[in-house]
Amino acid sequence: WWRSWKGYVELEEKISPVDEDSTAEDYSEEAGTKDRCRPGVIDNSDLVRDEKDGSVGLELCNGLQEGRDYELVPEVVWKRLVEWSAYYLYLCCLLLSFMVLCFSSLLHVQFARSLYIMGILLF
């Protein structure tokens, strides 16, 4: 997830020295993000061991290396990323709910229209 996030926000590029010929637009949050996929919800379940009862434990799996498999970030950064991730999921759920509501309303209207047309044809 962290690698996806870094790629999405171009973290490596943004912390590089500022070029004298660059403009503020080059460093804006919107610059170039339209073509990249926004990372989804943070999911670290593949990094921690599963307990015997099926619950996810708090111990890292064997063989993981910091910098390759995971990154340690300050608590304030972690909280912000989790908030953003959860907020993004919330927005996706709202959008999906809205789409389902619209689609079901459309189906209802189409079904009622079909019954009405069939009723006219039958009489």
Automatic annotation (TrEMBL):
> What's one Pfam family here?
DUSP
Q: Which GO terms describe its molecular function?
A: cysteine-type deubiquitinase activity
Where exactly are the transmembrane stretches of this chain? Answer: 87-109
Endpoints of the signal sequence: none
Kindly indicate whether the keyword Ubl conjugation belongs to this entry.
no
Name all DUSP domain ranges: 1-101
Q: Which keywords, in A-to-Z order, does the entry hold?
A: Membrane, Transmembrane, Transmembrane helix
Q: Which InterPro entries match?
A: DUSP-like_sf (IPR035927), Pept_C19_DUSP (IPR006615)
State what protein this is by name.
DUSP domain-containing protein
- Taxonomic source organism: Nymphaea colorata
